[in-house]
Amino acid sequence: MARVIFWVSLALTPATLVAYYAFGVKGTPSFVLAAAALAPLAFLIGEATENVAEHTGPGIGGFLNASFGNAPELIIALFAVAHGLPNVVRGSLIGSVVSTALLVLGAAMVAGGDGTLDRRSLMLQIGMVFTAAALFLIPSVPGWHGNPERHDLYVLTLPVAAVLLLGYLAITFANLRRHAAAKREEPHAHAWSLKRGVAALAASTVATAFVSEVLVHSIDAFGHSLGLSQFFVAAVIVAIVGNAAEQGGAVVIARRGNTRLGAEIAISSSAQVGVFVTPAVALLSFLVGHDLPLAFRPVELAAVGLAAVAVAVTVADGCSKRWQGFALLSLYAVVVIGFGFAGDR
After folding, report:
1. pLDDT tens for each residue of 136-159
2. Helix, strand, coil abundance in the chain, percent, nearest 5
3. CA–CA separation, 47 vs 62, rounded Å?
C-alpha cells in the first residue's frame, strides 16, 4: 500500500507544473503544492541512490546523490542572480551549506541510530567547507563597509572562486579514486541495475529542478504572508525546501540502516554547495548580466564555521550515535534563531 501511495503521489509533480504554468496558480497555494511534490521526489532520489550505491559503494553513491541534488540549486541560483536578487542567492547558498551539514546529518544519525561512518571521507569534505568559509573572508571583510555589490569585490571574488573550484575537483577526484579502489560487496539480488538507478536519478533531478523553480518563485509571497525577512526566507526556507529531495533521501537511506551512506550524502552535499556550487554561481553570474561578489555577512560566515567545527567533532571517532544527531539538530535550531534575529542587510 505504501508503495502504491508513493507512485500515486508522484502525480503531484505534473499537477504542480500544470497549476503554475497553465493556470497561473501562484503565491502560497503554489508553494504548498511544490513542497508536497518534493516529498515523493525525495523518496525516489533516495531509492535510486541506494540502488546505485549497491554497485558503486557508499562514497561514490553519496557523491552522485549530492551532484544530482545540487544541480537544480545551481540553476535556481543563476536564475535568482539574473533577476537581481544577490542577497537571496548568498543567503540560500549559505543556508544550504549549514542545513545539510547540521539538519540533514543530524536527522540521518537520529534515524539510523548507532553505526559506523567513513571518518576519512567525511573529515576531508568538512575540511573543504571550513576552508571555503576562511577564503570567503577575502571578499567579505571589505564588503562589511560600503556597497557589498561593488565591482572591486567581484574582482576579489574571482581568484577565490577559481581556487575553490580547482581544489574541489582535485580532492573529489582523489576521494573518488579511493572509493573506487575499495573492496565492494556484490549487489543484492533485488537491487536495480546501474543503468536503471542512474536513469531514475537523472529523471527525478530534472523533475526536482522544475518543481524547485516553482517553489522559489512562490516562496517570497509565502514569506511575506508570515512577516519573515528576505534573508531568513532565503537562508532557512529556500535552503531547506530547495534541497528537500536529497535531504529526504539521506534520511530515508539512514532509516533503512545505511547511516554510512546517509552521512556521506549530507556532508558531500554541504561540501559541494560550499566549494563547487557557490564559486560556480559567482563565476557564471556575469553570463546572466549581474556580477555576484561572494561578500557574506559575519553571521553567515560564523554559521558555516560553527557547522564545520561541530560536524568535525561529531564524526572524528568514525561512529554515529543517536544523541549526537540530536545535538546537531539542536545546534541547527540555534542557528535558525540567529538567522531570525539577523534580518536583512
Report:
1. 999 999 999 888 899 999 999 999
2. 80, 0, 15
3. 12
Half-sphere exposure at residue 326, Cβ-oriented, CA atoms within 13 angstroms: 5
Tell me the residue type at 109.
Answer: M
Q: What amino acid occupies position 273?
A: V
pLDDT class for 58, splitting at 50, 70, 90? Answer: low
Determine the Cα–Cα distance for residues 223 and 10; give it in Å rounded to an integer: 26
pLDDT (mean) for 9-18? 92
**Distance separating alpha carbons of residues 268 and 42, to the nearest angstrom:** 17
What are the backbone dihedrals phi and psi of residue 320, each rounded to the nearest 5 degrees, phi first?
-105, 130
pLDDT score of 268: 86
**Residue 23 grid cell:** 493556470
Domain boundaries, the chain: 58-182+228-342
Strands (E) in the chain, as ranges, are 115-116, 319-320
The fold adopted by the segment(s) 58-182+228-342 is: A middle domain of Talin 1 (1.20.1420)
pTM higher than the cut 0.85? no
Residue labelled with grid coordinates 561529531: 314
